[in-house]
Amino acid sequence: MKLDFFKQSIFKQFVVSNLSVIIVALLCYASVDYIGYRSVALLLLATVSILSMFFTLYPVLTAATLSALIWDFFFIPPHFTFHVSSSEDVLLLLMYFVIALVNGVLTSKVRALEKLELQKEERSNTLKLYKTLFDSISHELRTPIATIVGASDNLLEKDSHVSENDKTKLIAEISIAAFRLNRLIDNLLNMQRLESGMLSINRDWCDVNELINSPINRLKDELSTHNLQVQIQDDFPIIRLDFGLIEQALFNLLHNETLYTPADSTIIVTAGYAKGNLIISISDNGKGFSDEELRMLFTKFYRSTVKTTGGTGLGLSIVKGFVEAHEGQVKVENNSPNGAKFTIEIPSEILELNGSMDFTDFVIKENVEHETLSDQYIPKRKHKEISSDEI
Amino acid sequence: MNILIIDDEVQIRKLLEITLNSNDYNTMSAATAKEGIMMSVVHPPDLIVLDLGLPDEDGQEVLRKLREWYLGAIIILSVRSSEEDIIKALDNGANDYLTKPFRTGELLARIRTALRQTQNTATIQKLEFDNLSIDLTARTVTIDNEPLKLTATEYSLLTLLAKNDGKVLTHQYILKQIWGPGYTQQSQYLRVFVGQLRKKIEPNPVNPKFILTESGIGYRFCTKVEE
């Protein structure tokens, strides 16, 4: 049984346990004429037993002692003294003490065992996680290395019968394998930056069109089998974030799209700005995710069991890490009627371009004298606004 | 043309020698900073390809030392890919920067650009790129022979980039050149004006072919879309 409410400070445990004993004792005191003072001992004992289920050793022992004293003082005749007259009652009181103490000690022992078991389970979970990681990384490393070794062996063979055309294909495979290795190393290094807490965010003004087109260009070949649509306005305001990190996050999301959606799927990338947040969404009409996948997707090293392609389970946790480093969030949901939709929200300042800068005074007219050209244009009004925003 | 390769990795030296020799460049190789600096003094090369991770001295330091007297082109070839390292190397006088792994085609293009820029000292009056033409004496810009209206700042920015075509210019360098030393942190000006300029000269501003972005570092003016 796990009740977080009871996992409170030791002081609270003392207060709550002793208070419970006193309350039960008061109730018994009111009804002692009907139930007899000996059943009161049983009721108090039951209270202590229940307390020992939730609390640690010392609060329970204190409650046990308190209840014994209360029973002795208020219930055993003669009342209002610790003196016990009948020898039967002396025995009962002693037994009461022993049972209450044993109760407390036993439950605390059981609980210590439980804790140990829990730690063991946690450790084995961590081990399992590492094993998964090492398995997937060694798979991811060895596959391209195998390709490189195999293809270059083939090319180096003196009397090989490989046609020129096939030789070119082998060389292309070597190249693809090498870039795949490089991507894995990038991901491992990024994960390490996140895990070590060494990640620093360098926010600077950047163009959202560039931010989105950069990863698309890097993935030109992989995306060529898909139908990609980018829906973003030309004069999108410039935005302040760490270009390198968010570009990598978008790259990982888009790269996943190329791996996990079937060829000819439609991928739609949109960008918008609302309530101080840059919102970028990437959606597809692929297979979408099961409920379990939706829940687990951003967990470190998690890999979808349904998909067969490799992967280390690092990509999406890096996305999450980089976006959260910007105090933003990343969400995944299923798209209707099918497919998945990833949404990144990043709080950021913006600088609206539309109409905010008046260039008319500086337009070069055909026959204007060229001295004016050397005048540097500084957008004064905006400058003030920006510098006051900057920290 | 003589190219000096300073890199401690045999594999990289071998790859560079083969690639460069087959493209009619003569090569010399050094495995340490000491050896490299000595070779550059004895036989001043036209261009130096320098690795930053050398065993005996930090590459940035080697770069600073070389720049005290060496006027030829220096291209950095390094596994260090952080923006800080790249900007630092460019500030220390490197003409260009490529991170390992690199495409050899890309390296050859950068070498050609760097050699052209360090050797061409003649005053240029006209810059031509595809359908874009800049007349530096008349201070006019045309696209498909149609005159283009540019603001003073847009014109300065365009000529600064175009005069250094093929070379990466850092944000700070551009801001300092166009707006002055007090404006090196005002990167939003640069974004805005590059955006404006792209709209005027690029056939597709969203996927530019003239003003290319070096993310986190700066801009590079190019006449062709890079592969």
Describe the structure.
The complex is a heterodimer of chains A (391) and B (227). Chain A is of the alpha+beta class and 391 residues long. Chain A has 3 domains: 4-122, no CATH class; 131-195, Helix Hairpins (Orthogonal Bundle); 204-351, Heat Shock Protein 90 (2-Layer Sandwich). In chain A, 59% of the residues lie in helices and 12% in strands. Chain A is built from 12 helices and 8 strands. In chain A, the strands form 2 sheets. In chain A, strands 2-4-5-7-6 form a 5-stranded mixed beta sheet. Chain A has a 3-stranded antiparallel beta sheet with strand order 1-3-8. In chain A, α1 runs parallel beside α3 (57-75). The longest helix of chain A has 70 residues, at 87-156. Residues 355-391 of chain A have low confidence and may be disordered. Chain B is of the alpha/beta class and 227 residues long. Chain B has 2 domains: 2-119, Response regulator (Rossmann fold, 3-Layer(aba) Sandwich); 126-221, Winged helix-like DNA-binding domain superfamily/Winged helix DNA-binding domain (Arc Repressor Mutant, subunit A), CATH 1.10.10. Helices cover 40% and strands 22% of the residues of chain B. Chain B contains 8 helices and 12 strands. Chain B has helices at residues 10-21, 33-42, 59-67, 83-91, 104-119, 152-163, 171-178, 187-201; strands at 2-6, 26-30, 47-50, 73-78, 96-99, 126-129, 132-135, 140-143, 146-147, 168-170, 211-214, 218-221. In chain B, the strands form 3 sheets. Chain B has a 5-stranded parallel beta sheet with strand order 2-1-3-4-5, with helices on both faces. In chain B, strands 6-7-8-9 form a 4-stranded antiparallel beta sheet, covered by helices on one side. A 3-stranded antiparallel beta sheet of chain B has the order 10-12-11. The two termini of chain B are 25 Å apart. Chain A binds chain B through residues 178-179, 182, 202, 204-207, 209-210, 213-214, 217, 230, 234-235, 238, 243-244, 247, 351, 353, 357, 359, 362-366, 370, 372-379, 383, 386, and chain B through 83, 101, 139, 147, 149-153, 155-156, 178-180, 183, 186-192, 194-196, 199, 205-207, 213, 215-216.
